[in-house]
Automatic annotation (TrEMBL):
InterPro entries (UniProt xref): FAD-dep_OxRdtase, FAD/NAD-bd_sf
Entry keyword annotation includes Oxidoreductase: yes
Keyword Transmembrane helix: no
Lineage: Bacteria, Pseudomonadati, Pseudomonadota, Gammaproteobacteria, Pseudomonadales
Residue stretches making up the FAD dependent oxidoreductase domain: 31-381
Protein name stated in the entry: Gamma-glutamylputrescine oxidoreductase
Record keywords, A-Z: Oxidoreductase
SUPFAM superfamilies: FAD/NAD(P)-binding domain
GO MF annotation list: oxidoreductase activity
Extent of the signal sequence: none
Coiled coil segments of this chain: none
GO cellular component terms listed in the entry, alphabetical order: cytoplasm
Amino acid sequence: MANTPYPESYYAASANAVPPRPALQDDVETDVCVIGAGYTGLSSALFLLENGFRVTVLEAAKVGFGASGRNGGQIVNSYSRDIDVIERSVGPKQAQLLGQMAFEGGRIIRERVAKYNIQCDLKDGGVFAAITAKQMGHLESQKRLWERFGHTQLELMDQRRIREVVACDQYIGGMLDMSGGHIHPLNLVLGEAAAVESLGGTIYEQSPAVRIERGTNPVVHTPQGKVRAKFIIVAGNAYLGNLVPELAAKSMPCGTQVITTEPLGEALAKNLLPQDYCVEDCNYLLDYYRLTGDKRLVFGGGVVYGARDPANIEAIIRPKMLKAFPQLKDVKIDYAWTGNFLLTLSRLPQVGRLGDNIYYSQGCSGHGVTYTHLAGKVLAEALRGQAERFDAFADLPHYPFPGGQLLRTPFAALGAWYYGLRDKFGF
């Protein structure tokens, strides 16, 4: 069977050393079989192992191969649709529960990093940058909204203040969230995998789930083995394919592009981002960036609907970077890559159960780093019989994309074109 390596990226090139993990070549029995060794799967596995479950994780390629090891590395609170939107859709009681959970993912990441001594360049502080007065007004209401749910580590910034934290003259103000921050995402997921193994969990790489035999004791088949379990957690997200047809219809893989500069040196790095906070702007099709541990700039943005890999990523992203930082015009780009995330029509995560024993979480819609860590805890609670928080997510309404899988990409691209115009002209 072919060995799928990591795609080329700055993260793969600077990953901490880890032992190779074998492919599954036997029939094994376990309490819980987790499909996917990204943040959702490993977060679930850790919480379950800490509560005495036997756990086996199947990964089609390598730990963190998908979005978990390729994303922008930013710890951003809440969901892709904020709590006020959720409240209008589901009412105050369910929104209250979801609102209380909106800031938990970042806390879980920090707890994991501390408890298992994970080396992933964790830094505190994330900035939402406003380009228009309308966006600034939105941040003011967002601060009031988040504070309603007990989230108080927030500071509104005027134009003078935001220039102290980011050397970009596009912004008229912003909001600093000190419980936001950034990490080396692949090293975080590799550290979580090592934590899973330290607690007795087993991870098989190069072991794609090709078929699930449903029933009282479900069985997950791989090309060379199978896992019989009491429960299955499906955590493949944008890399799940058609393994579970019910989940494929209501979601769409999308690609986002990231570039990384050559090392900038201490002086230039400090000039761009003096406090080493990460930044994302408030556009619908947003740009995001941060410094790495070795003082490179990671800059991402853009969405490719349907998850095709664009031919020249640098040509798409470099102009965005130079618009923010014209002072980088002579800086070389060392890495450029794309990674897929899973978009839902509502832009809210899809959580649920198939039959009595197959659980799933997917569709973070670009807000995955924090949400997936929360999802692991919520899934583990549900398997232990505490389903209140699981049900709050499972009861969110979800809809198939108009026109089914054939037309979902053009429809979404049309929507993105419209919102791109809104960003451009500020309406």
